[in-house]
Amino acid sequence: MSGIPHDSHQTGTESYAALRTKALESLLVEKGLITTDVIDTVVRAYEQDIGPLNGAKVVARAWVDPAYKQRLLADGTSAIAELGFGGRQGVDMVVLENTPMVHNVVVCTLCSCYPWPVLGLPPSWYKSYAYRSRVVRESRVVLREFGLELPVSVEIRVWDSNSDIRYMVLPERPAGTEHLSEADLVPLVTRDAMIGVAKVQAPAAPARR
Length: 209
Hints:
This protein is mainly α. The chain has 10 helices and 4 strands. The strands form 2 sheets. It has a two-stranded parallel sheet with strand order 1-4. A two-stranded parallel ribbon has the order 2-3. The longest helix is centred in the first third of the chain and has 29 residues, at 36-64.
């Protein structure tokens, strides 16, 4: 992606906690107790796998259980708590449903408010000034840079997370997955799809022999 590189970082003054974390990381590396590669691997796991797995379970349940989906869209916090997920960064959750005619995407224009209980750690690009400033005013262009090309007929709605409300996208269930179980659907759901910068893709059909 050209406009918003995945390794970009938020500009401006860093928080006290962030500075302390960097100082501790530097000390551990300097003492030879841990390597930067190990740190990067752990952070990547929490960004892309461990954290987003919770949200993927929520999405998969909504896809197979219409009653749960209705509760999720009506009161995201309570419905997510039914599956055992919640916490300070997910006290007031609003779940936004993508449809063939409406595509939702989430941002935090002021800082990096993010639903940690269901999506894990926020990716660096989500915190970047480029994403925060551009996705509101040129959302279609930004999504294209992520590789998501939407028809002009699809309305794009951008939602601004804040300290009071965290948003999560309920992606469309991909065609061709009607035969899959809830457990089979979970691995298909990505963090980026739950932010709204990607769509969930159906699994590739097995090659014929």
